[in-house]
Design brief:
The protein folds into two domains: 61-235 and 344-363, Rossmann fold, CATH 3.40.50; 237-343, 3-Layer(aba) Sandwich (Rossmann fold). It is 35% helix and 22% strand. It is built from eleven helices and 13 strands. The chain has helices spanning 3-13, 20-48, 74-87, 120-123, 125-133, 145-155, 269-278, 297-310, 319-322, 330-333, 348-363; strands spanning 61-66, 92-96, 108-112, 138-141, 160-164, 176-182, 210-214, 230-243, 250-251, 259-264, 282-288, 314-318, 336-345. Strands 1, 2, 3, 4, 5, 6, 7, 8, 9, 10, 11, 12 and 13 form a 13-stranded mixed sheet that branches. Helix 7 (269-278) links the parallel strand 10 (259-264) and strand 11 (282-288). The chain is globular and about 60 Å long.
Length: 364
């Protein structure tokens, strides 16, 4: 998909475009959205009626996902939960699809908790990022998360599974269903694909046990939720910068007074750039790439030329992009920093108690 078309569609689907011409585009797409929604409702009904079978793993499964297309901060939330459980002494395995990796479609162990066996190009950027930034975390990829879980049980014997981006993966039973929604636009324009950002009709949120509203502003009130799920507010804060070439983190104040070029290939790059501006970063240029981008020579050259033309003194990108930046010209790599995010939850005890309850029940 052409990037300009992709950007236009995201703005349209999120409800940011409301001109008459935009409404005509929506009018054209809406019948397809109705058809898509009908198919999804039928699929959910088949699972509820046990016509399509749900499979259960022998350890608790916590699903972390959303009902919109990308950009709600699933990876930081997965990392937060994994670190909390690991700190309690539990063996944790993440089950991920491995989207964008060359081994997508196969079930493979990315990390056994001690060593990483696959590269980001092989397993995908998000599984590799989790494996490389959360010490002791086991990560397994596979399109069928039940089969991936069975592989994990055979080779790794975890105490608990985290199902990454698993809200729609109804084939696998989950013991705790966590739904992430963007605070500012939790349902986009309220329509399903292709007219909106919803992967499922809004009523699918009733399957959630806990809803985290991500990117919540300070002091915000918790929105009204669909169904009986408990809700919490979560925010992502850039806490420091990690040099791409290695070395200890440096304070975010390193950006102060410098001309900064930011680039990102994530689901919602605009939110990343906005977060940098909110912190007072002087962005002289922003370069947007598609989500799960492969940084080939053409894209790496685009970053290098952007740095030279803008006179940028510092380059800032996400940790997710950082795992794929091998081959970046030394003149750029030496100036590139990865923005490290920290997740804060307003009522963490609700999440912690739910996780503890699962594990205590498992031990009985």
């Amino acid at each position: 998909m052409n990037l300009s078309i992709q950007t236009y569609w995201r703005e349209l689907a999120s409800g940011r475009r409301t001109e008459p011409a935009d409404k005509l585009v929506l009018l054209f797409l809406t019948p397809f959205a109705w058809l898509y929604s009908l198919v999804l409702r039928l699929r959910a009904l088949l699972y509820r009626s046990s016509i399509l079978k749900t499979h259960r793993l022998p350890r608790p499964v916590v699903s972390i996902g959303n009902i919109t297309v990308g950009g709600t901060g699933k990876t930081p939330v997965t990392a937060y939960i994994a670190r909390h459980l690991l700190a309690q002494g539990y063996k944790v395995a993440v089950l991920s699809r491995g989207y964008g990796g060359s081994l997508e479609g196969q079930s493979c162990v990315v990390s056994d908790g001690a060593s990483i066996m696959l590269s980001a190009r092989e397993c995908g950027d998000e599984p590799y990022l989790l494996a490389s930034t959360v010490a002791g975390l086991m990560v397994v990829i596979g399109p069928d998360r039940f089969a991936a879980g069975q592989l994990a049980m055979q080779q790794l014997a975890p105490d608990i599974f985290l199902l990454d981006d698993g809200f729609q993966h109804l084939r696998l039973h989950r013991d705790l269903n966590i739904l992430l929604q963007d605070f500012s636009r939790p349902l986009g324009n309220g329509l399903t694909l292709p007219a909106g950002m919803l992967r499922e009709p809004p009523t699918a949120a009733r399957r959630a046990d806990l809803i985290l509203f991500t990117r919540s502003p300070k002091g915000a009130a918790t929105p009204v939720t669909i169904g009986a799920a408990t809700a919490c507010l979560a925010s992502h804060t850039i806490v420091d910068l990690i040099p791409l070439n290695g070395g200890p983190p440096v304070p975010f104040s390193r950006c102060s007074g410098q001309r900064v070029l930011a680039f990102a290939g994530i689901a919602d790059p605009a939110s990343f750039f906005a977060a940098l501006r909110t912190e007072g970063v002087n962005l002289v240029q922003c370069i947007t790439f598609p989500d799960h981008v492969v940084y080939d020579k053409e894209r790496l050259d685009k970053i290098a030329s952007g740095m030279r033309e803008s006179g940028a003194e510092l380059l800032v990108t996400t940790e997710k992009d950082g795992v794929k930046l091998r081959g970046l010209a030394p003149e750029c790599a030496n100036r590139t920093m990865l923005a490290r995010l920290e997740l804060t939850i307003d009522k963490p005890e609700l999440l912690h108690n739910a996780l503890l309850g699962l594990l205590k029940h498992q031990e009985l």
